[in-house]
Write a structure and sequence with these properties.
4 copies of one chain form a homotetramer. Chain A is of the alpha/beta class. Chain A is built from 14 helices and 13 strands. In chain A, the strands form 3 sheets. In chain A, strands 2-8-7-6-5-3-4 form a 7-stranded mixed beta sheet, sandwiched between helices. A 4-stranded antiparallel beta sheet of chain A has the order 9-10-13-12. In chain A, helix 6 runs parallel beside helix 7. Chain A is globular and about 55 Å long. The two termini of chain A are 14 Å apart. Chains A, B, C, D: Keywords: Pyridoxal phosphate.
Chain lengths: 341, 341, 341, 341
C-alpha cells in the first residue's frame, strides 16, 4: 500500500532521532532551560537573520496558534483569517476556547487577499457601531496555506504594510514552512518571513520532528513572561529538551531545508504524472500537497493501492483528493504512484 | 427634532413605571425570590401556553445570549447563526468570550434559511474530519430578525424540525418579540414560539421596560442551578424585583402586546409615505424597523430634522438608513416624518 | 414582621425614583451616551476631588468586580484578597469564570492585613519557582468589608504603599461605600479613597439605587475601549440612562452620603441595645451591619418577629446572626427591634 | 556534580527509546489512531484490571489536569484540593484559565484529610447561601503527593466513599504513580487506584518517558468526544504515536514498575544515610522525594558538589531541601551523596 495520506505518518528524520538518542542520558535542566534549547533558539535566530530574536518551543500547532493569538490580542480584539484558515476550520474551536473570535475573509486560492483585508479594516473603522463589534487585532495567515499555495514576497509585503498601517501584528503559521521555502518558484526566504511577520512559527511536526513548533518573535517583543503563559495553557514540557534537541538538530547544517526538498521532489513526480495524464488540478500548489479532481470510479480503483486524503465532493461523479508528501516520502513510492495514476 | 434612531430612546412605558413606583418601598427578598418575580414568571408561562415553563430574568440582551448559549452548548459545540445574527456581529465577541464559536450561514432577508441549515449540518456530519471541527450544537435565530423581518410559522417549523432531527436546541432571541407578534400578516403567536423553540427570550428593554429580558424554557429543562450560572456571569441583580415588577406589569392584561401595536402603527404610517413617494425599500420589513434606500443629498436634508440610523452605504450616491419606532413613538411624530419624506 | 435581613430589600430612595420618573419620556441616546450619565460621571469625579477621573456605570457588583479585575490583570496574574473577600466567597466563581485566580490571605477582622500582604508578595518574588505560579497582580479589598469593618486611613495608606512598591493596582470594592463614609470614627473620606485606590467602585444597589455601581478610575487610566470590554461581558445596558439618572441624583446635593446616615443611625440604635443587654458582638462593626452571637433558643423566639441573616454556627448552643440596616430602615423599626432584643 | 534536583533530568529509559527508534519509519495514522496507541491503551486497561477502561494520552501533566478537570466539572463547580495541591500552586493558574476555582483544604502531610473534606462538603451544603458560591464538584489528590507521601488504601477508600456519597468524582494525579506503587510499605496497587478513582492519570514524563501522561477512565465514562476536547485545548499531537509507542513499551512486561524500583532503592540509600547522621526529616516520605532540614552553612558546602532543590526556609539558620531520585538515578551517585551528607 502506498501512503500519501498526510505529512505526519512517520516519526522523526534520522538526524533528529540520532540527536535524541545521543543526548538521552545527559542530565539537563527542565522546562526549556537546557543548553540544547538555548542552542536551538540561537541557531534559529541566526537562520532568520535576526540574532536577537526570541524563540520558544511548543509541542503542537494548535497549541501554538492558541497561545500566540491569545497572548497577543487585546481582549476586545479578534484575529483576521481567510475563511479556510486552519484556526477557523480545523482546530476544534481552540481560538474561541481562549476567548477570541476568528474574523473571516473569503479566501482566494487558499490565501487571504490583501485588497479584501484592506477593505475589511477600512469598513470596520468606518462603522459607527464598531465599539460593539470585535476589533480586528491581528492578521493570521499560513505559509504555505491549507491548500499548499504560497504568497509571493510582494503579497506578503502588501499584507505586512496593511498591518503596519493599522498597527496590528501579522502572524504567520509555518506548520509546513520548510516545504514553502524550497518550493519551485518561491521568492520568499526565511529571512523575508522574519522581516515581514511580527511573529511566526517554524513547523517541526510536519517537517522532520516527532513533535514541536518553534515560535519566533523576530523583534524580540514577546509578551512578558511568555514561558508562564505557555505553562498556563498546559504547553510547557518538563522535559523541554525534547523540543530543544530536535530543533537544534534541524537547524544544524541546514537540515531543515535539506530534508524539505524530498517532499517537493516527490510531489513534483506526482504532479508531472498528473499533468501528463490530463488530470484536472483543483488548485495549483507548488508545495508538498497536491489537490486533484478525480472521477469517482477511478478513485475507487486507486484506493485499493494508495492511501490519499478525501478533500471534498466536486460533483456527482467527481471528488477532490489530496496527495501529501513529506521529508520521508520515498522517491520509489512517488514513482509507483505516478504509474498508477 | 424627530427621533427614529432606535427603539430604546425612552424609559419605561407608563404602566411599568407605575408598578415600580407603587412597589418601591415594599420589603422584598433579593435575587429574584420576591413575589413579583414569581408572579411575572407565572404570567409569562401562562401567556406561552406552558404553565410549567421555567422563566428567568436577566438585565440585558447580550448577557442573556451569552448565558443561554454558554450554558446549553457542550464544550465542543458552537452556535449556528445567520451571518447577520446579532450574536455574530454586534455583541463585541460576547459569545467567544465565553468560549464558543458562532458558526455562520449566509443570511437571506436577514433570516437563516432552512435549506442552508440542513445542508450545513449534513456536510458537517459527513466530513471525515469533523472531530477536529466545532460541532454545531444549537441554532440561534432572532424573531424579528436584525432586519425586522419575520419567519413564518412554516419557516419556524422547518427550523424546529431540523433541530429535532439533529437533536440540538433551537434558541430564539426575542429582543423585539412584541413587535413581531403584532406585525401585519404574521401567523406566529407567542404559543407558537413556545412550541417551536427549545428556549427563547422575551425582550423587555426594547418593548416597554427600563431593562430586562425574560428567558423562557418552555419544556422546563433549564440547566441545573441556572441562577448560579447567571450569578457566575455577573447577571444576577440583588434587587431582582427590578426585573420582576416590570415583567409582571408587562404581562398583566396583555400590556406587552398592547403597547407593541403603537410601534407597528407608526411604522406603517412611515412605510405608507415611503411607498407613496416611491422610495426603494432595502428590505421588506413588517415590524418596527424600516430600511430604506435614500439619495445622499436627500438624506442630508432630512438629517436636519430627523434622527435616523445610518445602516450602510449602498453606492456612491445612495445610503441605506433605518427608521425605528417603538411603543413610545408618537403618532404625530410618525405623521410629521411622513410629510418630511 | 421587622426586616433586618439585608440592605437591598427596598427599591430606590425617593429622590432617585423621582429622577427616573421625571426623565422617563425624555429621548436620550443609548449605551451611556446620554446627558444624565455624563452629568453623573462629572458629579462623581468632582466629589472624588478628581475632576479628570473616568467613571463608568455597571448594573451590579459581581459584574463590576468581574470586569474590573479581568481587564486590569495580565493573563499570568491573579488578584490578592482576604480569605473572606466577596470575590473569593460569594460570587459563584465569577473571577475564575473570567480566567483568574483569587490568591487569598487570612483575614483579620474581615480585613486584609498589610503585614501579611507584604510577606505574601515578598515570598512570591523570592520563590525560585514563581514563574510557574500565579503572579499577584492586583490587591482587592472592600470598604466597608464583608464584616462591616473599616480600614483606617493609615491602614489604607499602608496597603496603597505596598501596591505602589510592587507596581500593582489597589482596587476597592465599595458596594457599601456610603455607609463607611458616614460611620462614626472613620477618618476616611471619598477623596482619600480616590487618592489611595487605583480603581474603586461606588455602590448604588445597596445605597439608594435600584441597581448600579459606579466604577471610578481616579487617574483616568481606564483600559482602552472599556465600554467595549463591558459590552463583551454583557454588562452594557442599552438604556444606560437607567444608571446615569440614578447616580446623577445620588450625587446631587450630597444625597448619597445624606441617605447613608439613616443606615448608621438605625444600626447604632440596635448596637446600643445589644450592648446594654450584654450581647456578645461577633465582630466590632461601625457600619450598617451588626454581627452578634445569640443563644439558639433566644434566636428562635426572635425569629418570630424579626427577619435577620443567619451568619454561622458558633457552637452547639450559639449562632452568629447579622442585622443589616440601610438608607430605607425606619427609626421606629430599629427601636422596635431594640426592645425585642 | 551529583544531580538530585528533580526527576525529569534525563530523556527516556532505554527500552522506551528503543521502541521509538524501532517504530520510527513505520507509517502510522495520526492523532492517536495508530496501533501502538491502541495497544498501549489495552495494556494499561489490563494492568488496571479494567479491560474496558478508556485510556487517552496527553503530552504533559498540567495539560492533563486542565483537560480532565475542565471537562468533568459542571460550570458552577470547582475542584477540591489540598492547599499544597499541584493544581493550586504550581500550574500558573491553568485551572482558573479554563474557568474553575480550586477550593482548598489545609493539607496534613501533603494530603487532603478525609475528615476535613467531609466537613467542607457538609458545611457547603448546609450554607443557606451556597447557590452563590462555587460548588465542590470533584476531588483532586495526587498519589504520591507533592511531598512524596502516600495515602493508604484505607485513606483512599475513605475519600472514595465521601465522593460517592456526594456524587462527585475522585481524580488522582499520578504524575509519579510508579514510585508510589513500589514504595516500601504501600498497600495500594494499580488495581486499587483503578477501583477507587473515577479518573486518574499514570505519569510518564517522570517515570521513564520523554513526555506523556495516560489518562484512565476505569468505568469507561469519559466525556463524549474527549479527543475533540483534547484538541480544543491544544493537547492532541498529530504524531500521537509519540505517546502511544512510549506507553506501549512502558506497559510491556512490567517495565513501568520495574524501572520505578531504582528510584526507590536510591532514595532509600539516601534516607538511610540521613537517618544515620541524625538529620531532621521535614516530612516522612517513602517515595522518590526526600525532604530534609539542613543547617545553612552545611547546605552551602553540599551545594558545591550536589544539585538539589531548595524547598523553603525553615528558620534563620535552617532550610528545607529536597533530593529527588528517578528511574535514571545511578546507585553509585546515591552512594556518593550518602557519603557527602
Amino acid at each position: 500500500m502506498l501512503n500519501f495520506v498526510n505529512d505526519y505518518s512517520e516519526g522523526a528524520c534520522p538526524e533528529v532521532l540520532r540527536a535524541l538518542v545521543e543526548s538521552n542520558m545527559e542530565q539537563l535542566p527542565g522546562y526549556g532551560k537546557d543548553r540544547y534549547t538555548r542552542s536551538a533558539a540561537e541557531r534559529i535566530a541566526r537562520a532568520c537573520g535576526k540574532p536577537d530574536a526570541q524563540v520558544f518551543f511548543i509541542s503542537g500547532g494548535t497549541q501554538t496558534n492558541q497561545i500566540v493569538i491569545s497572548t497577543l490580542l487585546k481582549q476586545y480584539q479578534g484575529v483576521v483569517a481567510a475563511s479556510t484558515g486552519h484556526v477557523n476550520m480545523h482546530e476544534a474551536g481552540a481560538i474561541e476556547a481562549v476567548d477570541h473570535k476568528v474574523l473571516t475573509i473569503p479566501e482566494v486560492d487558499g490565501k487571504l487577499p490583501a485588497p479584501a483585508l484592506r477593505e475589511f479594516l477600512e469598513t470596520f473603522w468606518a462603522d459607527a457601531n464598531h465599539e460593539q463589534m470585535v476589533f480586528p487585532g491581528m492578521v493570521y495567515i499560513s505559509w504555505p496555506t491549507e491548500y499548499g499555495t504560497l504568497y509571493s514576497k510582494a503579497e506578503l509585503t502588501e499584507l505586512h504594510d496593511i498591518c503596519q498601517q493599522y498597527e496590528i501584528p501579522l502572524y504567520i503559521d509555518g506548520a509546513r514552512l520548510g516545504y514553502g521555502l524550497v518550493a519551485p518558484g518561491t521568492d520568499v526566504t526565511l529571512e523575508d518571513i522574519a522581516n515581514l511577520a511580527d511573529v511566526f512559527y517554524i513547523g517541526g511536526t510536519k517537517v522532520g520532528a516527532l513533535c514541536g513548533e518553534a515560535v519566533v518573535f523576530p523583534k524580540a517583543d514577546a509578551p512578558e513572561y511568555f514561558g508562564t503563559l505557555i505553562k498556563r495553557r498546559g504547553g510547557l514540557l518538563a522535559k523541554g529538551r525534547l523540543l530543544g534537541v530536535q530543533f537544534d538538530a534541524l537547524f544544524t547544517d541546514g537540515l531543515y531545508t535539506r530534508i524539505s526538498h524530498q517532499a517537493i521532489d516527490t510531489a513534483e513526480i506526482i504532479r508531472k504524472a498528473l499533468r501528463e495524464k490530463d488530470y484536472e488540478f483543483f488548485i495549483d500548489s507548488p508545495t508538498n500537497q497536491t489537490f486533484v479532481v478525480i472521477e469517482n470510479s477511478r478513485m475507487e480503483v486507486l484506493r485499493q493501492q494508495v492511501n490519499f486524503d478525501f478533500w471534498e465532493r466536486k460533483d456527482a461523479d467527481h471528488t477532490v483528493i489530496r496527495f501529501a508528501t513529506s521529508w520521508a516520502t520515498r522517491t520509489a513510492d512517488a514513482q509507483a504512484l505516478a504509474e498508477l495514476l
